[in-house]
Amino acid sequence: MLRALFACLCCTLVFANPCKEMPLKLNQMAQRDQLNRQALRQLQLDSKTDTAEATKLRQQALADDTSNQATLKRLLAQCGWPKDPGVRHDAWLITQHAGQDRPLQRKVLALMQALPDLTRSEQTDLAYLEDRLNRFDNKPQRYGTQFLRTDRCTIQFAPIDDLKAVEQRRQALGLPPTADYLADLQRDMPKDCPRLISVPTTQISGH
């Protein structure tokens, strides 16, 4: 009888182990993150960003982001940084959109930088996160991945350190030139907006 109870307790503890559930949980959160942003992007393309639907969706996305970040922090504290590159990408995606939680972003940046075996895809993820933090710290980007929306029809790169060096770093990661990247971004602008290209700037603006 006692042996059966002990076995049952062990099974419960195994299935309740959050680290075993971490890959599935992170993937579910990453999928929800992307669904929210795809829906918002479509509303932007349809010039419906000022509608009640868009407001509700932005509120839902913010609530999901906040929940995702709290769960990620708990999982990192319990389980550490994931070993599987695919699971690490999901964790990075949640972190990348944690703009209101800079300590989490800095922690994940350090965890990623400490890994000796980053895949090419993870090196790109790292570049995006480093640029994101530099942008919010009012420092120049090193890879030119972050942009500013100055109005509904205008986007431009957040300040970079040196255009030639940025292009070289992007090429090393297999990223397209900044002009091509910005052109892709502008294709996601509202349909009635002109397609204009802004040259990246090295000037650091106060924001």
What is the topological layout?
Blueprint: H1 2-15, H2 18-45, H3 52-79, H4 85-96, H5 102-113, H6 120-136, E1 147-151, E2 154-157, H7 163-173, H8 178-186
Antiparallel strand pairs: 1-2
Helix pairs in contact: 2-3, 2-4, 4-6, 5-6
What features would you describe in this structure?
It is globular and about 55 Å long. Among the domains are: 22-41 and 59-72 and 85-117; 141-207, no CATH class. It has a two-stranded antiparallel ribbon with strand order 1-2. It is mostly helical and 207 residues long. The longest helix is centred in the N-terminal third of the chain and has 28 residues, at 18-45. 63% of the residues lie in helices and 4% in strands. The N and C termini lie far apart (67 Å). A hairpin with a 2-residue loop joins β1 and β2 (154-157). It is built from eight helices and two strands.
Major beta sheet summary: 2 strands, antiparallel
Identify low-pLDDT runs. 8-15, 203-207
> What order do the helices and strands follow?
HHHHHHEEHH
Shape: globular
Oligomerization state: single chain
Quick description:
This protein has helices at 2-15, 18-45, 52-79, 85-96, 102-113, 120-136, 163-173, 178-186, and strands spanning 147-151, 154-157.
Which key phrases capture this entry?
mainly alpha; globular
